[in-house]
Design a protein that fits this description.
three-stranded antiparallel beta sheet; 22% strand
Amino acid sequence: MIYLVSDISVARAATAINAAITSVQITISLSLIILLIHFMPKTNTAITWSLISKTLHSSLWPTILSADSSSSEISGAIVSVVSYMISVTTVLVAAAGILLPSGLGNGPLIPMEFRLVNAEYIPDNSPLAYSTTPNRSQFVYGRWCLYLDRPGGAIQACPGNKGLGTAEITPSLVEKFNSIPHGSFTMQYRRFYTRSGSVSLPIGVPYASVSQSFILRNDTFAVEGLIVDMSSTHPGVGFWNQTLPKLPNGGTWSQDMLWLEPVTRCIDTNLTLNYYTLGDGINDSMTLSITDHGGIVNLTHTNPTPDRNGQHGDLMQYAYMAAVLSNRYAMLALNITRRSSSVGASYSIFNIGDEGNSIGWSSGIVGSVNPLPISYFDYNADPDMLCQGYGGNDIADGSDVNVECGIFLGPPQRIGNVGRWGNVDMSQWNQKIHSCASATRASIQTVSFSTNSTITNLQSLNVTRMNLSGLNVLWAMEKTNLSIYEINILWGPVDDRYENDSSLRTIWAEGLYLPASPYERPALPPGLPSAGHGTIWGQVYPPSGAGYTFSTDYSGRSDFAITSKLQSLVAQDPENGNAQIRNLMWTDIMANNFIGTQTNNTLWVAEYRKSIQYDLRFAIPGFILLLIWVPSFLAATFLLITRSLTFGYMKQVLNHTSAGRIVVGASDLRIRDDNPGGPSRSREKEGWGLSMPVTLDLDHKGRGHEDRDNVLEPLNQD
């Protein structure tokens, strides 16, 4: 076996081989004729001379040397045209043999008709997969319900349970929310352990962490148990277990799955944090100031009230509410009024390391993308409930959407446009302060998969979301008499027969904004992954400016790649960039802590088949050759079929035109004499080839004059 490293295709290699073979074929023929002429005997039989003549005149040498048999001075159009066509076709055959293979190439994979194909589990080999707890069947769903008025997290019986002795979700509720394949019970925690705690039955308790951050990606891809979309415009996660078809050449198919996506709206507070960095970068000796760009001087006197319209609320109103509350706290803390401030006015706060730093900001917060409480000038205030529109005492019946509000420092921008970073002594920077409000939307979405080869790992899958809005299904939320603090209610798509169930709040929609959950609980709720979305927002909006508690530094403080991406998001879309940052953080944390369990034993798949493509430009010599060959072949076939020409006549023509027979006078080629009774014309040495007509004296049966005389002689004797 020989291996050659080359950039040319197989078709081009075949063309090169054909060209080499054609060259050898031509040169070896010319070489052998030279040898024949040099070594042939001077005396041979007539048959031998016929063979020598055929061999010599069928080569290219007559054409090269302009011998008689290749002369262009031919009398008679038919002989001239046919001789010319034979020469042309000889060249065309050689050219076609070389060029025709060059047009060949591997074509695209062609999808066949959809058919039912068996599917099997394909394990992931990413770091996230290695951090996933195996034996998913050991995960136990359940929930604990707390007492609002009892300190220490005292537990009460959840709806449908008869006592405190179980964390099991009542079977009737499980049946309702498992009535279609894409329910919330297809969600599990990625890492968990099982414990009993203060109840008798075990429950799955999650380990929360970020094992493999995808924050720098900008595509849709598959990981263990999830489809993850990290695009800036519509991020989210789809809950799906990777049961995939085995296809030799790949194929395409689609699957419906439960999808969760973050929805965020942000608004500029029209305040910026300004500072100068010293030669050693951001440190506790820096002086901070707040600059008013209209946030205080134009602050509204009206107290905004977001429209708490359940599934039809406007998150921008919540973000505006947070901005107004935040700027009011800032105005009070800076001891200024709307009248005393002006656009562009700056108010020095303090050095970060000062003892009077009541904000509690440190050099780890300033200079990077970090969350702040709404009342970042007064940590004792608690305006979060005003922004969210609900509190822990409100009834958990699905009427309130889980909304999280917060203030954020945007990516640092260097004043003077001399670079995004690179601290220089006394360089000036600012960070915009903006407010955001976020919620989680659930939907049933169709995801398309394709691959061009046998699936050996999830990285070979091409993943595309087909409908970003979702399918129109019946959504339900559990109705209870407990407070939001006391219970995480169930939600999800349900079968049509539960539309009028009195224990459920139902709605036909393409998506569902998930209900309020106990936001202040810092840990993921044990046994109930469907309620974990609120806790993840708690990581994006940490209370009291605590910063991100997971291992990944989303602030970009210690990772310039993250800083660069966050800056580019805001630069590319100043209106939505800050919201995109929040959404990507939520998606990244969700992907690292949740997994889907929905499997498919069979799938409708359009399997790919290999194809061959051809560039018709390389077929031009072949087309010309075909135009000559088709009429010639059809005409010749017609003459033979109708016996207008017989093989016997053809044999006699070949025999009587052979050189040996002509030399010995056994040929019926005769010099035609236009004056049979007159003197014979002289034979000129010059021009004899054109001046002396020669006739092939054969009849239509291939008989010469001697044969005809032999037939007529007995008749004459009679």
